[in-house]
Design brief:
With 376 residues, this protein is mostly helical. It is built from 18 helices and no strands. It is globular.
């Protein structure tokens, strides 16, 4: 890669990322998710329109951004949810959609939207986090098993090996507890050393490299890194999450979405728009609609509608699936473009509708039916 071209592309992508929140604030009507603006900006500066930038020139940084996206999603996941009803219902809902064909939820993409609108707390937040986690983790495992390696046996063995490594790493802090090394790490947390952040980046890159070496998708390594990190710092390092948000959402994650927009085949979508509409409707019907029925004992009707909309939101894994399908020759280029386009449309439409419902619902929240505490 030519250094000058790489820097030019990086500058263009950084400008798009910096302008995205400004564009969102200036657009009339309800605020749209920044990820949509980032993707659209990538399309505009990419080879399909202006030709100012190409994905290949910043591919490594974009993949690190994808890694940060799923690291933060894994960090948000509390495995104890799977021992409670929210986790069990989420798994049941995912199994229903497996039988129908579409099985992903864009938890990593939804997190900033849900945080900005204070929708991660309370009963609804726990059910939503569980549904989103299952909707990302299980498809990642499926990708690793069926699309990553040369055979299912090799994929399963590789998956187990990476999982064992992640489990071993999760207990690493116990080895230094009470030692001088732990004191050094804690003392450097807020200084120029930034030890916890540096160790986090090492953990992320280590599991990305290991996953790639074993022939698995790097998304799995990033998600496992987030799970390990949660065990490393379940509250001991107070500012770690804010620092990771600053690094991830401040630079690497927007870069990934801008780079993804550069590869979107807009012409094929324009030539066959009904294909995109069909994928978009399938996302809602197959992934979202089951929530209306499976959560009827747990959530009021208005929140079940929100759950339907939010669980049907999909994008990062669709981008990964499209790239893997194109690389393996199992997906037509026009189908890959329509699938990613449908995911981008779902990120634009479904969360916007769910947030609009939330803003109308809150004044009337005192009149909603009360549900008993979550059973174990």
């Amino acid at each position: 890669m030519d250094l000058a071209r790489g820097l030019d592309t990086l500058l263009v992508a950084a400008v798009v990322a910096a302008l995205a929140p400004v564009v969102v604030a200036l657009l009339p009507g309800p605020r749209i998710p920044q990820v949509v603006v980032l993707l659209a900006g990538g399309v505009v500066v990419g080879p399909e329109v202006l030709g100012w930038a190409e994905r290949a020139e910043i591919d490594l940084l974009a993949n690190v951004g994808l890694g940060f996206l799923f690291l933060l999603a894994g960090y948000e996941l509390d495995l104890k949810l799977f021992q409670e009803r929210p986790g069990r219902v989420a798994v049941a809902a995912w199994l229903v959609t497996v039988a129908l064909g579409l099985t992903t939820t864009a938890l990593g993409t939804l997190l900033p939207i849900l945080r900005d609108n204070d929708m991660l707390g309370g009963r609804f937040g726990r059910y939503l986090l569980a549904a989103g986690a299952v909707g990302e983790l299980f498809p990642v495992l499926a990708i690793a098993l069926f699309l990553g390696a040369s055979s299912e046996f090799v994929a399963l063995a590789s998956l187990l090996a990476v999982a064992v490594l992640a489990l071993v790493l999760s207990f690493a802090p116990r080895l230094i507890r009470g030692s001088r090394l732990e004191r050094i790490v804690r003392e450097g947390e807020g200084a120029t050393a930034q030890t916890t952040v540096r160790l986090t980046v090492v953990l992320l890159l280590l599991l990305l490299v290991v996953a790639e070496t074993f022939g698995l998708d790097v998304v799995l390594g990033a998600f496992l890194a987030g799970l390990v990190l949660r065990r490393w710092a379940p509250g001991g390092y107070h500012g770690l999450e804010d620092k990771l948000d600053a690094i991830g959402y401040g630079f690497f994650i927007p870069l990934f979405f801008v780079a993804s927009g550069m590869t979107l085949d807009v012409r094929s979508i324009a030539e066959a728009p009904l294909r995109l509409v069909a994928f978009f409707l399938l996302l809602l019907v197959i992934r979202g609609v089951p929530a209306l029925f499976l959560y009827r004992r747990d959530l009021p009707a208005v929140q079940r509608v929100q759950m339907m909309l939010l669980t049907a939101t999909a994008l990062p894994l669709l981008v990964a699936l499209a790239e893997i399908g194109l690389r393996n020759g199992t997906m037509l280029r026009e189908n890959a473009a329509a699938l990613v386009g449908a995911g981008a449309l779902s990120v634009l439409v479904f969360p916007t509708a769910a947030v609009a419902i939330e803003r109308r619902r809150r004044p009337d929240s005192a009149n909603l039916p009360r549900f008993p505490p979550l059973p174990p």
